[in-house]
Amino acid sequence: MASLWQYANPKKFMQTTSVLLPVVAVLAALTLGTGLIWGFFFTPDDYKQGATVKIIYIHVPAALMAINAWLMMLVTSLVWFVRRHHVSALAARAAAPIGMVMTLIALFTGALWGQPMWGTYWAWDPRLTSFLILLLFYLGYIALWEAIESPDTAADLTSVLCMVGSVFALLSRYAVNFWNQGLHQGASLSMDAEENVADVFYIPLLICIAGFGLLFVALVLARTRTEIRARRLQALIARERMA
Amino acid sequence: MIALFARDMVLAMRAGGGFGLGLAFFLIVTVLVPFGVGPESGVLSVIAPGILWVGALLSCLLSLDRIFALDFEDGSLDLLATAPIPLEGVVAMKAAAHWVTTGLPLVLAAPVLGLLLNLQGAGYGWLVLSLALGTPALSVIGSFGAALTVGLKRGGLLLSLLVLPLYVPTLIFGAETVKRGAAGLAAGTPALMLAGITLASVALLPFAAAAAIRVNLR
Amino acid sequence: MTVTDLACARGGMPVLEGVCFAVRPGTALLLRGPNGIGKTTLLRTLAGLQPALAGAVSAPPESIAYAAHADGLKAVLSVAENLRFWARIFGTSGIEGALAAFDLGDLADRQAQNLSAGQKRRLGLARLLVTGRPIWVLDEPTVSLDAASVALFGAAVRAHLAAGGMALIATHIDLGFTAEVLDVSRFRAAPQRLDDFDEAFA
Questions:
Q1: Closest approach of A45 to chain C, Cα-based (Å)
Q2: Is the model's pLDDT at C19 over the cut of 90?
Q3: Which of A36, B25, C55, C144 is geometrically suited to a Cys-Cys bond with C5, CB 3.0 to 4.6 A?
Q4: Where are the transmembrane segments (chain B) (predicted)?
């Protein structure tokens, strides 16, 4: 029977992803291209915000991916911790810089959007602050991976950090809410909210989110493949040295 | 386990730098702030809760890397790991010793420094209470960070990078307690949240830290 | 204590495999082998400080006292305080026997930082006596000991064995008692072998 765990075998993973990666990459390019072109050139300007509203097509998907990347790292860390599948640990390692870049994109596009809307690039708003804290968590996680030489030790320690960090990240989110009520609008995409994004913006935004999601998957797969090859290289060098 | 705690206390007292250093650092940070922001008492009393909490946090950070590093270098950690007491207990005792040598002096000295920063009347009680509730969390979270970096040659900077984001909730609730207390508002909610964070950290983090130490010893 | 088919790794690379031996109460086993063969790795695995790749170590729980290159001494504590600390950690009492066995009685009140390397080593070995554990796992115990101290150590091991204890010692010198010798180099892991994970790449 086919099971998810067979992909934990690096060989199987490499075989499968060598086919899967180009497909996902092309799909990501198509979806993201469609969403962005539609969003940028074929939607009307907002009556209040003018053309600046179009930042939404990058800002919201990037922010979503920034959080999703951390969630993925949490899941893969748990898998490594419980079942010790090396691919899982390497996937977590691969996802971290992508998540960090997504966080940065969300912060920068948010600053660019905030200047015309709120009259300031930065405010210590709960959502903005939470993202800044998330960025710090990414930095610490990546730094720990880089600092430790032995790959298994690094995988163990970073997975513990990821699990503990997730709890504290969540805690920080609520602490920050408590600390300051903010300028940022509430959820713009929930199903039941009264004040939602208008349909004209909604559909291209969903396409952009799907595009960012596919882009994220493609990048993670590519980087995981690189990590696996790097690990293979290390093993070969070590074997050479022993022989 | 009591023996371990007692040994760490003796070491802190004899080796020097254990008790005094964090406290002196706290003092210096607090004294430097008025030079930076100006001597107006109105401004100082507004920022006093935050400065005192950030100062306490930084002075805790200062001695974190010593929690396990010294025992790692001289081989004691190997021997403790093979001793009949659980490693989780070792972590808890070391964190407790760190708190008594670093956190507790801060709690006791804070009111004096609050005076320097023109903290408002009702704030003093809340300041001492919030530090008493919050600094144990700083020690325990810090020993988790120290456990992660114990095997590294230059772990000090990395330790700060790992631990400071984890300190955010404690800092927010701690400073908020003092701020509300000084302004004469009800400060019970953040104080309870702070106590919750401390209790949960003390209960759970020794397990994570012990796991990290086991990984680092292999 | 019996060890069956044990394999252990250093830095992710297997160094020893198929290690089998048994130590009976009252006997000692000396480990020999060139530097870097994996004696320290093997001893750390036996002490439970690192997981074995394969195989099993069967020994009663909490029976192993481990001593390696670092003695775990605190510089600002006196000789007696250092020993008393470990005695309390291991739940035993009385450090006089240990002090006497390694001729540390006169130094009992001296701080560990003022001891010579050989004296520190003797203190580190005296710690074994206060653990009260039956199996001693020792990694190069005689480093920086002079001939008289080596004789003291040999006597301590003989006394321990006579009391029904066991010892597993990685050493290159003659300790003055008869013991089985195990050459570790015959368990050397085949250099061509990669661990399962690396094997799986191609």
A1: 53
A2: no
A3: C55
A4: 12-37, 43-64, 96-117, 123-150, 157-175, 187-213
CATH number, residue A143: 1.20.120
- The shortest C-alpha distance from B76 to chain A (Å) reads 21
* Residue in chain B nearest C12 by alpha carbon: B218
Residue of C nearest to A238 (CA): C13
Within-domain flag for C165: yes
Work out the pLDDT band at C133, boundaries 50, 70, 90: confident
**A170: nearest CA partner in chain B:** B169
Give the rounded percent of residues in chain B with a pLDDT score beyond 90.
Answer: 45
Q: Can you name the residues that pair with C182 across neighbouring β-strands?
A: C31
Give yes or no: residues C119 and C138 share one domain: no
Cβ-based contacts under 8 A for chains A and B = 75
Residue C199 domain-assigned (yes or no): no
| Domain coordinates in residue numbering, chain B | 2-217
pLDDT in tens, C64-77: 888 888 888 888 88
| Domain of residue A92, residue span | 20-181+200-242
Into how many domains does chain C fold? Answer: 2
Chain C nearest C-alpha distance from A163 (Å): 23
Q: Are residues C7 and C103 in the same domain?
A: no
Structure tokens at C142: 């005689």
Find the helix packing angle between C79-89 and B2-15, rounded to 10°. 150
In angstroms, what CA-CA distances link B197 with A85, B26, B133, B138, B207? 33, 23, 9, 10, 16
Between chains, do C200 and A151 touch, taking CB under 8 Å as contact? Answer: no
Can you tell me the distance from the alpha carbon of C95 to that of C171, in angstroms, rounded to the nearest whole number? 26
Please tell me the predicted confidence (pLDDT) of residue A24. Answer: 94
> How many domains are there within chain A?
1
Cβ atoms within 10 Å, residue A176: 22
Task: Report the residue from B10, B11, B79 with minimal CB separation from C66.
Answer: B79
Cross-chain Cβ contact C197/A238 below 8 Å? no
Nearest to B84 among C70, C74, C90 (CB): C90
User: Is position C128 within any domain?
Assistant: no
Q: Residue A168 and residue B166: Cβ atoms within 8 Å?
A: yes
* A7 within some domain: no
Give tens-digit pLDDT for C42-94.
Answer: 888 888 888 888 888 888 878 888 888 888 888 888 888 888 888 888 888 77
Full domain range(s) for residue C45: 2-63+134-193
Q: Quick one: closest CA in C to B16, which residue?
A: C76
User: Given a cut of 70, is residue A187 above it in pLDDT?
Assistant: no
Does B112 score more than 50 pLDDT?
yes
| Chain B residues inside the 8 Å CB shell of A137 | 165
SS3 of residue C77 by DSSP: coil
